[in-house]
Specification:
alpha/beta; seven-stranded mixed beta sheet; six-stranded parallel beta sheet
């Protein structure tokens, strides 16, 4: 009737399609809080700069690290993330990814359109979306041959973190006795496999429900922490790797060999202890953070393709159910990794 505007969609179909291409689906949050703050929305599709690649994301993951980002806790982290609410560049989660290079900036040399890649976003989360831009020098590598996008995304952070601590910090050697606390988690499942690759004698610590899994990954012995306290067993280890922040140096000290290393992935106090124990010698705390992972990804790619290590996936969720995936991770009982599939079967 009068006052209405008629639109000829047949004539405007191409224009509408062009407009549509400038948007993408993503999981965003614009305030700190529980998983209820996560929203499935359409946002602007990123455009790569001269030194960036645009990645069509196939898979990402839900991680414990992202819980801290989403909740803004501990509070000191808000100095980086945003004091009252997350800064714009932190409003899309996702730190691990597998996908395809959609396009490249004019100065990019490492990758070309169509390359299948996997990698780590570092301090630039945003993989929980259909597209993401990353600098060419980011922690990216060609995806391991024979691995699905879900498997590729799932192995990135846990495996590279384990490699950093065991090889680079712990200087792991053949024949050493290694204890892995949280052996059934994202980092732990990779740590067990890598420690065996380095020919160590591996003891995993986990709950009753995960004993079989940890044994299947190659652990020589598994301690069920609901039934046994490893600190009271009388045994000692050359390396104690705490992947979940459930122990302390003071508690583990008597379980370390004479010049043993305690490797914690979390805790500000451990940075102080690292400096102190380096001065006094003997049993030492060794910690840190691996941000640049390119060498590690290439190293792991070879191991994966040789069948030396594998991904461990607990559950998979579609992008629109990412909040549910994060709720599951928040319970603290996941086995290995929780994957978010952005594009089922690597299509569109």
């Amino acid at each position: 009737h009068s006052g209405c505007i008629a639109i000829d969609y047949s004539k405007n179909k191409a224009k509408l399609k062009q407009i549509r291409r400038k948007f993408m689906k993503a999981i965003i949050y614009d305030k700190y809080g529980s998983t209820d703050v996560l929203q499935f929305r359409e946002v602007g599709k990123p455009v790569p700069t001269d030194n960036e690649v645009l990645i069509k994301v196939y898979s990402t993951t839900a991680t414990a690290a992202e819980q801290m980002m989403r909740t803004g806790k501990p509070y000191w982290g808000r100095i980086i993330l945003g004091i009252r609410k997350p800064k714009k560049k932190y409003r899309i989660l996702g730190i691990e990814l597998a996908g395809e290079i959609e396009s490249t900036g004019k100065d990019v040399k490492r990758f070309k359109k169509g390359d299948q890649v996997f990698g780590f976003t570092g301090f630039r989360p945003g993989a929980c979306a259909e597209y993401m831009c990353l600098p060419e020098k980011s922690s990216l590598a060609l995806q391991p041959t024979g691995l699905s996008s879900e498997e590729s995304a799932a192995i990135v952070d846990g495996a590279t973190t384990s490699l950093f601590f065991l090889r680079d910090k712990g200087n792991i050697r053949s024949g050493q006795n290694v204890l892995i606390i949280g052996a059934s988690g994202s980092i732990g499942t990779s740590a067990v496999q890598l420690a065996k690759h380095f020919e160590a004698n591996v003891t995993g610590v986990c709950s009753t429900a995960n004993v079989a899994l940890v044994k299947s990954l190659g652990a020589d012995k598994v301690i069920d922490y609901t039934k046994e306290d490893f600190t009271k067993s009388g045994a000692t280890w050359d390396i104690i790797f705490d992947t979940v922040g459930k122990s302390s140096f003071s508690r583990c000290k008597t379980s370390l060999s004479k010049n043993g290393s305690y490797l914690p992935t979390t805790g500000l106090i451990n940075n102080v202890l690292m400096l102190w124990t380096a001065l006094i010698g003997g049993k030492r705390v060794k910690t840190g953070m691996s941000v640049e992972k390119n060498e590690a990804l290439l190293y792991l790619k070879e191991l994966i393709e040789a069948g030396k290590i594998k991904s461990v996936i607990d559950r998979q969720y579609p992008l629109e159910h990412a909040a549910e995936a994060h709720r599951y991770v928040e319970k603290g009982h996941k086995k290995g990794n929780v994957v978010i599939t952005v594009r089922p079967n690597n299509k569109t």
